[in-house]
Amino acid sequence: MDTALDYREFKLERTWVPDHRNAVAWLLSHILRWHNVPLILGVFGGAIGNAFLNGYMPMYTGRAFDALRAAPPDLALLRAAAIGILWTQVLRSVLQLLRNLSSETFSQMMERNVRDELYGELLGKSMAFHDKQVIGDIMARATNDVREINLMFNPGLNMVIGSAAFLFMPLFFIYRIHPQLLLMPLLFLAAYAILIPVYLRWIRPKAEAVRTSFGQMNATLAEAIEGVETVKGAAQEERERRRFLERVSAWRRSFVAQANIEATFFPLLTLYILTAAGLYQSLTLMRAGMISLGDVIAYSGLMLMFDFPTFTAQFAYVRVASGVASAQRILRLITAENALDQNTQGYQDRLRGAICFEAVTFGYDPQKPILHEVSFQIQPGQTVAIVGQTGAGKSTLTKLINRIYDVQGGRVLIDGVDVRDWNLEALRRQISVIEQDIFLFSRTVAENIAFGRPDATREEIIAAAKLAQAHDFIMEFKDGYDTIVGERGVTLSGGQRQRLAIARAFLTNPAILILDDATSAIDSATEDAIQRAIEAIARGRTTILITHRLSQIRWADQIVVLRRGRVEAVGDHETLMTTCKAYRDIFARYEA
């Protein structure tokens, strides 16, 4: 069973099951996903072959030295040593190329797969999840932390595997020189086995602190850029600069703390002490006539092979620790509890549009309800206006209809079926919502209009734009419907953005249409035209209006008055003006 199914509101199809128990298990499941034996063999085979062939270099060098000291010099042995060095190093270079190519391919594949899973998970999360997240921190995890996983595999694990081969391969050659010379290398390996775990315990929390502080710094930067107009409007540039500097300083402190741990890397000191001791031991054996001077030189060269794994471990293990810390941060996003479920086996049918609120209670914080025991009904095809003072819960109420959020008490029924029993995708595809804050993608005008129906023809898109009174201004653009809209539609006026959003809703032909103050940024002349279009599209479908414009409220079949999260009254305009003081107060305020 895919344990990730519990984490997502919408489940994307998968042909494999990631293991979300912990960061290491999750990474391992990605490694095993493709069963890419050639790449794995390329990394391990290249590392082992590289270390093995590198061991021949000091051995042939020692033989060449003995050949030169012979009287007369043994030119045949010298020639053989030279040829041996040549062929082993050429082959070693080929294996090293294979190893690095395999490792880089594997790490890039890992980065791609992790990005793919994370993006799918973020799309599948509910709004309740996204409301609690800081966008900058999510972006740091989706970019920098994913990149850290790439670097963990290459050069990180690539160097760790290579280092392991360089740790053990010299023992084979040293034993061939003289078994007694194994003493110092074995002492070093014992010290290495003790010191590296200690080093990793020290470095892991520091690496995680670096990743966390980087995410906070990135979040501050993203927030300042997104709200730059507000910052400039309030002349708070200097204050925001100091705030960002504080985050940068925090990141620097955590980075320096990690560097301090890296500086106390004792295996290097241990290696140099034991190398000196090994040289003394080999010279002692030479004076005893047990080995030659060439063997001493070969032994010294083999001891130098330990320098590579010891020195690179200082860097490689930091990469691994940082990668695991990043994996933990990403996994926390993926496995964050989700309030909603797609309910793929739920009820599916064409909506008629009957909506019933039964004693609905809801709050973004369950301890602080915004809606209290809300009850009213909407018949199929009715147009209902929801009015109330700011903060009364009008927009919140509409978010319960398409299950952006789930009620904490009571029920919301559509066509007599609890919305929680509907197939979520089937439900939302038949409901269009146009809110005050219009989001447009950095794509063409046509693609933005057709976002809910990507298979729509150009003729259908143009027809929807004409209904929304958007066609004329679109055709004024140089590229017409192929004009690229800036991010969030910043290149358009507020009225133009809202008309594109209305066109998008018209194109999907919803059974339920929710307009959350959707004409707030439109001038009176354009509003009259859009009003006629809304009246036309509202025929035969359930329409919910959240507005304070009397011109729109008047033609509603029913008006629901909210006050402090409770239903104050339900009726038509004339009735409410005579019977409901809260309703009269709303219009007295806005007409004033």
The second-level CATH architecture of the largest domain is: Up-down Bundle
According to DSSP, the number of beta strands is 10
Write the CATH fold name of the largest domain.
Answer: ABC transporter transmembrane region fold
What integer is the average pLDDT?
86
Contiguous runs where pLDDT drops below 50 for at least 5 residues: 1-5
- Beta-strand portion reads 5-15%
**Count of helix runs:** 21
Main beta-sheet annotation: 6 strands, mixed
Q: End-to-end span in angstroms?
A: 61 Å
Structural class: alpha/beta
Helix percent reads 55-70%
List descriptors:
592 residues; alpha/beta; ABC transporter transmembrane region fold; Rossmann fold; six-stranded mixed beta sheet; four-stranded antiparallel beta sheet; 61% helix; 9% strand; disordered N terminus
Give a description of the structure.
This protein is an alpha/beta fold and 592 residues long. It folds into 2 domains: 3-334, ABC transporter type 1, transmembrane domain (ABC transporter transmembrane region fold), CATH 1.20.1560; 355-591, Rossmann fold. It is built from 21 helices and 10 strands. It has helices spanning 23-33, 37-69, 75-124, 127-130, 135-177, 183-226, 228-233, 237-263, 266-287, 293-304, 307-334, 394-399, 424-428, 445-449, 458-467, 471-475, 494-508, 524-538, 550-553, 573-579, 581-591; strands at 355-362, 371-378, 383-388, 409-414, 417-418, 431-434, 512-516, 542-546, 558-563, 566-571. A hairpin with an 8-residue loop joins β1 (355-362) and β2. α1 (23-33) packs across α11, α3 packs antiparallel against α5 (135-177) and α6 (183-226) packs antiparallel against α8. The radius of gyration is 35 Å and the shape is elongated. 36% of the residues are buried. Residues 1-5 have low confidence and may be disordered.
